[in-house]
Amino acid sequence: MRLKLVAVAVAALAPVVAMLVYNEVALRHQRNEEVRASAAQAARQASSEVERIIEGLHALLVSVAAMPSVRQLDVPACNTALKAVVESIPNIRTIFVVGLDGQPICGSMAFPEGVIFSDRDYFQQMLTTKAFVVGTYTQSRLVDRPVLPLAMPLMEGDAMKAVIVSGIRLDWLQNRITERGVAPGNAVTIADGNGTIVAHVPSPERFVGTVIPDALERLIHADQPDVIDVVSQDGTERILGYRPIALPSSPLYVSAGFSKEEAFAPINRATTMNTLAIVGGALFAFLASIFIGNRFILVPISRIADVMEKWRSGQTTARTGMKGPDELGVVGATFDRLLDELDERRRQSQEAEEERSLLVRELAHRVKNGFTLVQAIARQTFSRSDPERYNSFAERLAALAGTYDLILSREGSASSVREIVSAALRAHVASQAERIRLDGPEVVLPADIALPLSLVLHELATNATKYGSLGSEYGTVTIEWKHDDGRVLLVWTEAGGPPVSTPTKKGFGSILIERAFPAKAQARSRSDYRPGGLVFEVIFLIAEPVARGEVDPLGKDDMHASET
Where is it located (predicted)? Predict the structure, then answer.
């Protein structure tokens, strides 16, 4: 019952759990879409800022190219002018002009001895494209610090005259990205065309100058921007929005990663709280179901069962004492009323049984008196004239009186089949035992079977005396019985009497024979009125058989008598 109550509580909680799970899935999906959109937006903003910085420096180099001292390659004037420009712009360290052979011409600072720039990738690229070029992560030969070089041609008409070179200070670029602010767990990465990181938030000292992992290198030159799930170099799971170099006006790769742990932290906390709430609610529901079940269901049911058990043990005064408007209270009160009625009926039955017993004893007394009176009359009538016949009559009368005394007293006891048969027939053939043949094993019958069999045999003997073989001088009766697997088969066979015919109606004796045995005996009987005499067969149980089959274990599968 407790398990059933728990099952009811689980069934009640199931819709709530299902709703919370659905909301959890929906919220996580919604949050995932929001984070992906935020990552894409953050990558666009960072890329846009980098583009503005590059465009600003491009415009600066265009302005420098228009300066007369630069166009005329007037070294002293050019040096002075470029130094003044650098002093006013904090995001660059130097600006200098290089000849087409890579030799420096003029600049904002003095050149080291023997320095040359013709081997630089950006320089070779600019000579090929004759257009503004953003180089890759480069260790400066002038200031010995990493820079992001910029170069553009100094044109005179359609001919390239020289190359103007500058470089973005990577420490300044790093500061600009850091100043934008990045939430804990998030990351912004800027890399050049070779995949070398030129700015990174957080931990720039760990990542700047390193190469993006091979697994993410394909993103640098991807066809379109996108948002993906990745595990960053620091081991953090992130949703990464990225902008590849292939985009127009996008000389650098930019990505913005949002930490999943931080992004889903509110939902995870809500999930934890909801889970704790569900577990707490489930525990409360289980405890409540157990408490309520014990208090309002199991205790009343146990009380009713306890009263029933006491009744079985004979305590007929036991009652539940239950009252109240609830269903089990009504059941208990109804059960008490039923027990009251049963107790009253039992009392009335006892009174009726006492009255019946008194009447039976009175009847037995009167029958005994009747037999005594008959015996006295017989003794007075012919005991002196024919003592031998009187003695035979007296013995038979005494046996008949004993049989009637047993029937009327209902005081049966366990007896063997042979004893029961002998007692039933003694009154009818007391002095002619040779007319009775008994054949069968020693089988002891319990009291509730011995008395019905005694009644049946007495009735058969009475009918045989009145109408059958025992009523004639030379008639005989053969009683045979067999015992097998808890069943007893008894066959009563008459011979030597008057012709027998099937009765046209059923008398009380026949009804008694059919209904004498209790139901548990599963008795079946058959009467065969043969011309030579009655053959009566009865089979009944005295113990549970070991196995039952379609065929009678005593070999009487052809017996189709009515069940008693």
Answer: Cell membrane
